[in-house]
Amino acid sequence: MPQQPSDGGDDLGANDEIIPFKDEGEQEEKSSESVSDSTDLNDIKSSLVNEGESSQSNSASEGNKQLVAGQNYGGSSKDRGSKKVPPAVEGSKTDTATKTPGFGSIPILHGDLHVPYPPNGSMVPSSMKRFIDIAANFLRPADYLDHLEDQVQTNKVSVVHPAGHPNPLAQLTLMYNNDHFPPGTTPPPHLAPPGSPLELDPKTGMPRPRHPGEMPPIYPPLPGQMGQIHHPMEVYTQVQWRNYWDAKRFQQPGQPVYPMTTAAFRGAYPAALTVNTANMTRFGHSAIPHHPGMTITGIPHSAIVTTPGAKQDLQQQNNDREVPTICLISPYRQKSEKQKPQKTPHIKKPLNAFMLYMKEMRAKVVAECTLKESAAINQILGRRWHALTREEQAKYYELARKERQLHMQLYPGWSARDNYAVHGKKKKRKRDKSQGDNSEASNPKKCRARFGLDQQHHWCKPCRRKKKMH
DNA sequence: TGTCCTTTGAAGTAC
DNA sequence: GTACTTCAAAGGACA
To answer: Where is it localised (predicted)?
Structure first.
């Protein structure tokens, strides 16, 4: 069972002037609903084209606006792409931004990203904005992160793993490097509000890690480790993950928690996924040769600064396994990808309605019946699927439809045929239906015998087809 | 280590 | 247009 929030968890945002991130996400989702999919994607694409536009010449306030917008990518792309006056909803967001200008603790997949207040008179480095953008959406293709590497190095922004945290990955802090300050100085601790998680440790000069009792709600790491991106559904924003996890946390008995799919996440896909489809962005990280000196996430090692206490742990961790600085993989695919790393990356088929249903219900069935064998579980799930009402099934058909729609938008040239006998991989054995006694298609009389001519609506499709033919 | 099993649905090929 | 095949997920079983 994933980690539950600690006692002090929900104090996040009370005194820390932290942006109510979930609310923002809700706003973003609402606003994105009024925009067509294609519009979203085009906007995102255009924003990516203008990727280099953000500069340090932005005023701090403008930078702050971007920080806030950047937390919700759908909105930020529009904001970056034009200078139009934000609509009413955006206005309220701006008010929030003025009050809480994007600094604080941003939930990310493996924990929180701490964004310290800028030093006195200091501009917000564009790299920091971009990093937040990435962290908030927690998945960008490596080519975008390549770009980020330059940004980070140029703008002297670091990622800090606070010492003493049981899981250094659970808390990341974005730091202004000392280069932004007069020589020999460190960021003034007073810049962080007293008691804030951003408050600097006077001894280390680093942001003070929270004590265990004052941890913000830690959204559990997705199971497994880094895998591939080969399905658009694997791209979720932190808002989505939080909402999903919140739904899980507060799930009532018998109340389903629907999987994180496109249905609720339109406009949330990272921009770069929609471009450069000829290279790795279609195939995921494993297809990308890692830069020497870069983490698996594409964040340069040079940009990761550790406090003395955390350094050893991190080194050990990096030695033991290539742990992502920010978890970048779908909860759905991580485990299997970890166990069966794909040697021939490819874009996978979007999941159909039944597959989505299986995803959601499998764990429940496993828990109920103690069976572990997937074949048996799938039989049960198949029966349950048929026991669902049309309305219940319709939800999954709709989710599947949106998955396909998004898949088509993300990979316009993709065909299911591309995955037939993927890259010389041995074809699956054809099932000999002529001998299979469980194949209704092989025995068109089966449904007729079971249900009779009066109840042909119960017949399976193959049997109905056979009936038509005869 | 790789394939099979088992489910449904989508999409492909073959005729 | 119809029939058939493949592949999506999952993980234990098995060659």
So the answer is: Nucleus
Nucleotide nearest to A464 (CA to C1'): C2
Instruction: Give the residue extent of every domain in chain A.
Output: 7-285, 349-420, 440-470
The one-letter amino acid at A413: G
Q: Within its chain, how far is the Cα of A90 from the centroid?
A: 23
The encoded tokens of residue A100 equal 């809480």
Q: Is the sign of the CA dihedral A145, A151, A153, A159 positive or negative? A: negative
Q: CA at A431, C1' at B8: how many angstroms apart?
A: 16
Chain segment A378-436, per-residue pLDDT in tens: 999 999 999 999 999 999 999 999 888 888 888 888 888 888 875 445 444 444 433 33
DSSP-assigned letter for residue A430: P
Look up residue A85 and give its amino acid: V
- Give A194-231 pLDDT, tens digit per residue: 333 333 333 333 333 333 333 333 333 333 323 333 23
Those residues whose C-beta lies under 8 Å from the C-beta of residue A91, and which sit 6 or more positions away, are none
Write out A145-199 in H/E/C secondary structure.
HHHHHHHHHHHCEEEEECCCCCCHHHEEEEEECHHHCCCCCCCCHHHCCCCCCCC
Q: Specify the residue for token string 């489809």.
A: A277
CATH architecture assignment, domain A349-420 = Orthogonal Bundle (1.10)
- SS3 (DSSP) at A446: helix
> Taking all atoms of strand B, which protein residues have CB closer than 7 Å?
A 349, 352-355, 358, 373-375, 378-379, 381-382, 385-386, 393, 397, 400, 404, 415-417, 425-426, 428-429, 431, 438
Say how far apart CA A41 and CA A409 lie, in whole Å: 8
Q: Which residues contact A430 (CB under 8 A, 6 or more apart)?
A: none
Q: Do residues A85 and A99 touch, judged by C-beta distance below 8 A?
A: no
Name every residue whose Cβ is closer than 8 Å to that of residue A194 and which is 6 or more positions away in sequence: none
Radius of gyration, CA atoms only, chain A: 25
Distances (CA, A) of A140 to A71, A160, A326, A363, A442: 13, 20, 11, 29, 47
